[in-house]
Amino acid sequence: MSLKDKQVVLIGASSGMGLATAKAAAEAGAKVTLVARKQDALERAAAEVGLGTQAIVADITDEQAIQSLFAQVGTLDHLITAAADLTFSPIQQLDSADAKNIIASKILGPFYAVKHAAPRLSKNGSIIFFSGFSAWKPVAGTALIAAVDGALAAFCRSLAVELAPIRVNVMAPGVVDTQMWQGVPEEQRKAFFATVSEQLPVGRIGSLKDMADAALYLMQNSFITGTVLHVDGGHRLV
Fold first, then answer.
1. 23-54 burial, b if ≥16 CB within 10 A, otherwise e?
2. What is the CATH superfamily name and number for domain 7-237?
3. pLDDT tens track for 51-85
């Protein structure tokens, strides 16, 4: 299934995996709408993706903003939610406000997006949620994140039946070299990446290209729905 001239809306597109997926979709011929909550970051992302890209400021946790977004977009073929407001912390130190942000960005946000996008999605279109490997590989300091990522998988399965023939899938990335890690001191970051690489069956951590390729695969394969695609280098196995 070609992406040429398909309308792709990507929420959480200003950086990282969302931006990489937007670039790959545009290169495959799709007409991409980038969505993020910060105007300056969104403008930089749109410049990277290229001419003809539409950019709309909206916060996935704001239902009115999401409703307005899809009213502007009109019909679409693929919806991807990559937005996440995450705090990594032991559960006893996790602030309630941070906990609410995790839940709002990864559960309520996708709910709002699907609620207002589904009536406008083409019948041979798809929805992809970005989840994470912690739902399948327990890691200290990620308990609530694991909970919402696991909930996305359950949400996906039910929606795949409810919205059929629209396809609904989840991508579960592993450790990926993204801007999220830039706040970690360089030597510490390199040591962590090296340790994880040694543990993984594939012998390396993930790249943004790995994630973008996987998302494009899910959009273009019309026989996949209601499933979780683990793009983690086998992390959940070790």
1. bbbbebebbbbbbbbeeebbeebbebbeeebe
2. NAD(P)-binding Rossmann-like Domain (3.40.50.720)
3. 779 999 999 999 999 999 999 999 999 999 999 99
